[in-house]
Amino acid sequence: IFQGSSSDVFIIQMTGSLTQDAGTRVELSGGAVAENIFWQVAGSVQVAAGANIKGILLGKTHVLFEKESSLNGRVLSQTACTLQRATITQP
Prior knowledge:
It contains no helices and eleven strands. The chain is mainly beta and about 90 residues long. About 25% of the residues are buried. The radius of gyration is 12 Å and the shape is globular.
């Protein structure tokens, strides 16, 4: 859960990979907005089936959105981005 005002910026940096489990959700509260959340990931990103993530994903390697997963944000990958019937909505 990201809690903050609409002007708060969140930057999450990780040296490894990011895996979001199936059916899980990133929640925003208190006015926090997806366009102010940045995920900088040095490894791969995997958003499992039915999961929802919010923010701007900056992936160094492969980004995979499994079926029925979704992103409220944007994704930028240096290598590849695979969408398996996923939904991406611009905030």
